[in-house]
Amino acid sequence: MAKSRARQFAIGVDYGTNSVRALVVDVADGAEVATHVYNYPSGHQGILLDPKDPNLARQNPADYIEGFFKSVKGALKAAQKTRGFRPEHVIGIGVDTTGSTPIPVDRAGMPLALQPKFKRSLAAQAWLWKDHTGHAEAAEITQRARQTQAPYLAKCGGTYSSEWFWSKILHCKRSAPQVFAAAYAWVELADFIPGYLTGRLDPHTVPRGICPAGHKAMYNDQWGGLPSEEFLAGLDPDLVEVRRRYATRAVPADQEAGELTAQVAQKVGLPAGIPVAVGAFDAHTGAVGAGIKPGTLVKIIGTSTCDMMVAPMDQPLADIPGLCGIVPGSIIPGMYGLEAGQSAVGDIFNWFASHLAPKQYVAKGDAHANLTREAQRLKPGQSGLLALDWNNGNRTILVDPLLCGLLIGQTLHTTAAEIYRALIEATAFGALTIIKRFEEYGVAVHEVVNCGGIAEKNPFLMQIYADVCNRPMKISRSAQTCALGAAIFGAVVGGAYRTTEEAQARMTGVKPKVYRPNPSAAPVYAELYPLYRTLHDAFGTADGQGQLYRVMKDLIAIRNRVRKR
Amino acid sequence: MAKSRARQFAIGVDYGTNSVRALVVDVADGAEVATHVYNYPSGHQGILLDPKDPNLARQNPADYIEGFFKSVKGALKAAQKTRGFRPEHVIGIGVDTTGSTPIPVDRAGMPLALQPKFKRSLAAQAWLWKDHTGHAEAAEITQRARQTQAPYLAKCGGTYSSEWFWSKILHCKRSAPQVFAAAYAWVELADFIPGYLTGRLDPHTVPRGICPAGHKAMYNDQWGGLPSEEFLAGLDPDLVEVRRRYATRAVPADQEAGELTAQVAQKVGLPAGIPVAVGAFDAHTGAVGAGIKPGTLVKIIGTSTCDMMVAPMDQPLADIPGLCGIVPGSIIPGMYGLEAGQSAVGDIFNWFASHLAPKQYVAKGDAHANLTREAQRLKPGQSGLLALDWNNGNRTILVDPLLCGLLIGQTLHTTAAEIYRALIEATAFGALTIIKRFEEYGVAVHEVVNCGGIAEKNPFLMQIYADVCNRPMKISRSAQTCALGAAIFGAVVGGAYRTTEEAQARMTGVKPKVYRPNPSAAPVYAELYPLYRTLHDAFGTADGQGQLYRVMKDLIAIRNRVRKR
Q1: Residue A58 has pLDDT above 60, yes or no
Q2: Quick check: A466 and A516 in contact, CB under 8 A?
Q3: Which pLDDT does position A3 carry in this prediction?
Q4: Burial (CB count <10 Å: 0-12, 13-18, 19+), residue A539
Q5: Which residues in chain A are closer than 8 Å to B344, comparing Cβ atoms?
Q6: B546 touches chain A (CB under 8 A)
Q7: Best A129, A390, A408, A553 residue to mutate vs chain B (most B CBs within 10 Å)
Q8: Do the bridges between strand A48-50 and strand A53-59 make them parallel or antiparallel, or are there none, so unpaired?
Q9: What is the secondary structure of B422-465 as a DSSP string?
């Protein structure tokens, strides 16, 4: 009997908002062999907050480094129980992270925050994706791009976001000039980790992923990489240096960043020299792990959502207003990667459950489960409530982090469960708005594959999404699509597959259970959606209903002024 | 030493939404000698509800009769402890009630609901003021008055309300024709009680108060009493009979309805023959008890508010759009009585505290107290929240019971206490809107006197009202102004004073504590109010912002349709 070839494994390391997960997968079929999660120990669930500024969200970079060691070591330990697994069988490592999460670093490429001097400085930490402190700078960047007729916004929806690279760096310059001055360069978390693992941290040469560069830093080969020195100098002359120290060409995640250093390898119990893929964002590897292909919308539903599509590069693709980004190669190398999303989904339900669920829902068991039990007894439209899903702003299609929540229709009898359902419905209306925007610009959505914690665990929500969108909702086979997608890139750089698509074909799939629109619910939601859209346009667009567009802005301006007193 | 004249007392009987209160006062100075409250035993806190229709609110008329006996007997018992009190010293009785609270009665004037056959019929009960089931009929009445150019709406704000007499009766005809057919006539609760006490219940001759007639039944001596037979016949020919059985002239509350019958007197332990005043609504006697006079706005703040003013009849007074009513003699005989109000104030806070206050606020102590403690630490504008106070519709100035609540500005950090404060502020903005409307039409507000449970017990709210309205807020000396006002009319019909004003001068007053605008808060509210007004006009008026006006209506239409399935 011929001796069977040894099994091969890849590791995906997925840096989320509150924790990092390592996943060991079998490259033959994507089978998930072992996983381990490490919760960031710093701050509130890993996030450093400022009680005086709800827009601020930072992270301690030490948590990322420790997180790699702990999560990979834990996953390897668990994998040892699998027959046939040996650390020597790991052929590649892929990494994905949140983003835009830029980190100010020193000349060696190490985070400033690791220096005792900057340990307590919020500005010296990693600027987490959901940090919105740079909203004024984002508006300034948008305005400058429009005034100078620079092409940079065309591929990011026409509006630069406060969540992104340059807004944060410029805000650091303005609000914490001593940190800005001490930083030799700025590196995205998605680039820092592969650089750290492979010993290629020098800011001038650290392998930069096309995904963070293209979606958040206005990088595009079409205009020679990052925005021009002239453009940046017009915002602040010091940004020119930031550009100069970012000089390498950005590449897709199927490219090798380097090989695992002996030092890191030893720490986790792997052989040195394993190929490490270039980094990408979690949503993008998640889309890969969920089997994204042309016509397939992948929705990653968690605290926020990402709505990912790809489009062939041999056909013309319009610039799509309000889409966060269109970047060649950012999801699947060789295809346009399209990113949309909702700034808060699970976060809205968590906010409601922790801040407004009365005693009877929390006395026994989980508040979400108790609210859901009651909410699912309601019929669509029965509560008379309607909400906007903007508690954390609107990412697509309005690209406005300063929008906020709205609830309408309360009576003296309105219950918590009714509001909870209205909030779920609001996020579904937001999801439909994104689908419509894709299709309005010629990107047909033939299939929707959902993944992420909420898609996995919330059949009530998924049914509402099917009813509101009036489309079947499929669920990704893997519960860890981001880590699986990272592992797929690990498998590709490890040589198991020639292309990302080949790896996807073997390593991804959907579950048998499909949520289909309920014929009695969908028509009611078809009536409610125009009402949602009326509110959406009135409060979200300047050309909507005149002064209503100002209401949320003015409230926030007053709030910010009062809080600073 | 000359023997001092025996002290004289009057009794005010105040029929509220959940209970009836009897108050024994000294007619010399309004000193409150004794009081007793009887909670209506039927339904939910005295209110009969229909789980299928949130608009329905009825009461069991038997509770009113039993309530008179129990409350007056209890108050007299307590009064016996006062030196110098004897039941023989009671010189008059006044009565006030909620309204419009029409009751279908038989030929003898007794409520149909007392008959075994109708005991369980919701339509045969008293139709409580906050019953909104007749909203379609209200719209029909408004439309007919406009089409026929009848003058009837000019004195009630231009829109007939679902809370009022004819809407309810017409809705009974349409929805419960067997009850309508069995009813010989319809009598307001405010007229039923004096009629019952004095044995003058015959519907044709029961003393009808100008207050209920003028404010709720479109009665005006200017056009010969109730609306014409022709007008009513156009709505429904059967309404003509209702009019014919209501033929007496309506009179102010300083007139005597009759004398206490021996039967009732014996039941409560009073001498027979005591003069009983014509009935009025609680808000109107409350205004009297709070010392209303030209230039003084009396706000009665409870579950809802009433905003009362009087104006001299020797000066011209414009019809004021959106004001519930302008009726000669309805508050102080010989002056115009002006009534405005907010459909829900305390009810909104109660809704929030009981439906949305999380565990930490209810675990220990009163939810309102706990929410207030945290809410009062916030500065105006600090939460970024803004609400509309329409959870129970809008009475003034929009006169639209189908409006509903709205909250805007929620983030992922918004707390229950922030929302609680925003709801209080919303009611303050609503209060300011009413003051502005009075002044826009030439009725100057020189002073604001507040009364009612909330004015008494909620200094936090009163300070916000002072800050939002940017005016001092005074508090009525009496905590029972409605009952005191009724007792004042008892004192007048009992002969202690020649006029209501004379009695007021002796029997009413304000407390030393005055809430004055905080110079740091008022300017912020002056910025927030235009935002409130923008939302108010956009969602509340058809000429505001176009389609937004439809949103609440459409939500309710969908809700009603879905619920009926």
Answers
A1: yes
A2: yes
A3: 44
A4: buried
A5: 412
A6: yes
A7: A408
A8: antiparallel
A9: HHHHHHHHHHHHHHHHHHHTT----EEEEESHHHHH-HHHHHHH
Contact A379/B407, CB-based, under 8 Å? no
> Can you give the pTM of this predicted structure?
0.88
In B, minimum Cα distance to A562 occurs at B382
pLDDT digits (tens, 9 = 90+) for A271-311: 999 999 999 999 999 999 999 999 999 999 988 999 999 99
Is a pLDDT exceeding 70 seen at residue B544? Answer: no
**How far apart, in whole angstroms, are the C-alpha atoms of residue B196 and residue B266?**
14
Structure-block tokens of residue B470: 């940017």
Residue B75 in contact with partner chain A when CB distance is under 8 A? no
What string of DSSP letters covers A75-140? Answer: HHHHHTTSTT--GGGEEEEEEEE-SS-EEEE-TTS-BGGGSGGGTT-GGGSEE-TT--TTHHHHHH
Q: Give the 3-state secondary structure of residue B167.
A: helix
Q: Do residues A206 and A278 lie in contact, with contact meaning Cβ atoms separated by under 8 Å? A: no
Q: How far apart are the first and last CA of chain A?
A: 80
Model confidence over A97-131: pLDDT tens digits? 999 999 999 999 999 999 999 999 999 999 999 89
Compute the count of residue pairs across chains A and B with CB atoms less than 8 Å apart.
198
Contacting residues of A for B384, CB less than 8 Å apart: 404, 555-556, 558-559
Which residue on chain A is closest to B420 by alpha carbon?
A356
Burial of A519 (0-12, 13-18, 19+ CB in 10 A): exposed
Rounded distance, CA A42 to CA A62, Å? 9
List strand residue ranges (DSSP E) for A464-531, in order.
Answer: 473-476, 510-515
CA distance B356 to A110: 47
Contacts of residue B538 in chain A, CB cutoff 8 Å? 538, 545, 547-548
- Chain center to CA of B463: 23
The token duo for B4 is 């001092």
Nearest CA in chain A to B52: A382
CB contact at 8 A, B438 and B309 = yes
The Cα B209–Cα A460 span in angstroms is 56
Rounded to two decimals, the ipTM of the complex is 0.88
Q: What are phi and psi of A9, to 5 degrees?
A: -130, 155
Residue in B480, B474, B481, B467 with CA at minimum distance from that of residue B524: B467
- Which residue in B23, B13, B107 sits closest to B64, CA to CA? B13
pLDDT band at A403 (very low <50, low <70, confident <90, very high): very high
Q: Does A556 touch chain B (CB under 8 A)?
A: yes
**Judging by DSSP bridges, how do beta strands B280-281 and B90-97 pair with one another?**
parallel
Q: How much of chain A is in helix, strand and coil states, percent to nearest 5? A: 40, 20, 35
User: HSE on the CB side for A166, CA within 13 Å?
Assistant: 36
8 Å CB contact of B408 and A405? yes
| Cα A324-A327-A328 angle, rounded to 5 deg | 160
Contacts B411 to A, Cβ<8 Å: 54, 391-392, 404-405
